[in-house]
Each structure stands twice: as C-alpha cells, then as structure tokens.
C-alpha cells in the first residue's frame, strides 16, 4: 500500500498542474478582450449595425463556458478509461 501512495500523489500533482495551467490560459484569453479594447483600436470599427464590442463580449462570455465544458468532457473520459 505504501508503494501506491507516491504514484497517487504524483497523479494528483499532475492533475493540479493541468487544472492550474488550463485556468491560467482561460484567464489570459478572457482578459485579452478588455486589454485589446482599452489599448488598441482593434475593436473601434463596426460590423454592420452591430459594434465589434458585442461579438467580443459574446466571446468573453462563451469561451470560458466552452472551455469548462471541454475540460469536463476530457476529465470524465480520463476517469472512465481507468
């Protein structure tokens, strides 16, 4: 039983690292929209009657949700293969 403990601890460390890095990447992408809006002219134009801020805001809302969904599917598949 003692031989299994380091293996389980290393697996936990790997899972924590994956979750931390995934969360950090999502945060950076989420914060990229306000930074680009504040410091560049990238979102100054309009796309028809809809300003470019609307698609940017939709992306900022939907991207973290899609990322959470994909991560959950990946984690469930990882657990099911054991």
Spans of at least 5 consecutive residues with low confidence: none
Widest sheet, order of strands: 1-2
Q: What is the typical, i.e. mean, pLDDT?
A: 75
Largest sheet: 2 strands, antiparallel
Q: Please identify the structural class as seen in this structure.
A: mainly alpha
| Secondary-structure element string | HEEH
Give the terminus-to-terminus CA distance.
19 Å
Radius of gyration: 19 Å
In percent terms, what proportion of residues is strand? Answer: under 5%
Q: How many beta strands in the DSSP annotation?
A: 2
- The gross shape turns out to be elongated
Helix content range of the residues, please? over 70%
Instruction: Tally the helices.
Output: 2
Summarize the structure.
This protein is mostly helical.
Architecture overview:
With 82 residues, the chain is mainly alpha-helical. The protein is 78% helix and 5% strand. The protein is built from 2 helices and 2 strands; from the N terminus they run H-E-E-H. Strands 1-2 form a two-stranded antiparallel ribbon. A hairpin with a 2-residue loop joins strand 1 (46-47) and strand 2 (50-51). It is elongated and about 55 Å long. The model has no long low-confidence stretch (mean pLDDT 75).
């Amino acid at each position: 039983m003692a031989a299994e403990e380091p293996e389980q601890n290393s697996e936990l460390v790997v899972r924590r690292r994956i979750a931390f890095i995934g969360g950090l990447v999502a945060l950076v992408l989420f914060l990229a929209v306000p930074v680009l809006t504040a410091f560049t002219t990238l979102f100054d134009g309009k796309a028809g009657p809809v300003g470019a801020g609307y698609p940017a805001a939709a992306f900022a809302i939907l991207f973290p949700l899609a990322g959470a969904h994909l991560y959950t599917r990946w984690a469930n598949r990882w657990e099911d293969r054991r």
